[in-house]
């Protein structure tokens, strides 16, 4: 696969990861579609293995999300700005401490947003707990899975 197509696949994966943070956007499916597109063009054992693994992981994540309480966005102060802070925090955490760093980065992004909005540590931390109870767990599970698939794709492209 040539460089422009790889960049387009990477863009689709990034849009999918960002889409996880926006309610109503099928971020997980965009990530899967990007890997499918790449695997169909690449046609190697590594590409097919990654596609099968990504499919299995993303399906398991969908089942886990159905088992979690539904998202309750009203009443907890979730807004697009908070989603951006949480997403950037998760991405930075994922890069600094691969895979597991996404969790504290996600929570840290929400905390930073709330600290800037509310001003005090106590109010910000109370808001973080409310947000995590309402929506954070399901978003975090989906975001972590999509980041793992994206990292595996990058690793496979670089290694191949």
List the helices and strands and how they pair.
Blueprint: H1 3-20, H2 27-42, H3 45-67, H4 80-96, H5 102-118, H6 121-159
Helix pairs in contact: 1-2, 1-6, 2-3, 2-6, 3-6, 4-5, 5-6
Describe this structure in words.
With 160 residues, this protein is mainly α. The chain has helices at 3-20, 27-42, 45-67, 80-96, 102-118, 121-159.
List the main descriptive attributes of the protein structure presented here:
160 residues, mainly alpha, 0% strand, elongated
Query: Would you tell me the overall average pLDDT?
Result: 88
Overall 3D form: elongated
Helix % is over 70%
Strand content: under 5%
Instruction: Report the span from N to C terminus.
Output: 11 Å
Largest sheet: none
Tell how many strands the DSSP assignment holds.
0
> Which segments are poorly predicted (pLDDT under 50) over 5 or more consecutive residues?
none
Q: What value does the Rg take, in angstroms?
A: 17 Å
Count of discrete alpha- or pi-helical segments spanning 4 or more residues? 6
SSE order: HHHHHH
Structural class: mainly alpha
Quick overview of this protein structure:
With 160 residues, the chain is mainly α. Helices cover 81% and strands 0% of the residues.
């Amino acid at each position: 696969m040539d460089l422009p197509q790889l960049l387009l696949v990477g863009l689709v994966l990034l849009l999918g990861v960002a889409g996880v943070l926006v309610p109503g956007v099928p971020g997980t499916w965009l990530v899967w579609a990007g890997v499918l597109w790449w695997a169909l063009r690449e046609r190697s054992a590594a590409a097919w293995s990654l596609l099968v693994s990504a499919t299995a992981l993303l399906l398991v994540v969908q089942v886990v999300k159905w088992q979690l309480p539904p998202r309750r966005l009203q009443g907890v102060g979730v807004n697009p700005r908070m989603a951006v802070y949480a997403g950037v925090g998760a991405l930075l955490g994922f890069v600094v401490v691969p895979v597991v760093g996404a969790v504290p980065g996600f929570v840290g992004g929400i905390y930073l947003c709330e600290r800037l909005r509310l001003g005090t540590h106590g109010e910000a931390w109370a808001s973080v707990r409310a947000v995590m109870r309402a929506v954070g767990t399901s978003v975090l599970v989906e975001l972590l899975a999509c980041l793992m698939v994206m990292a595996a794709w990058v690793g496979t492209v670089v290694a191949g």
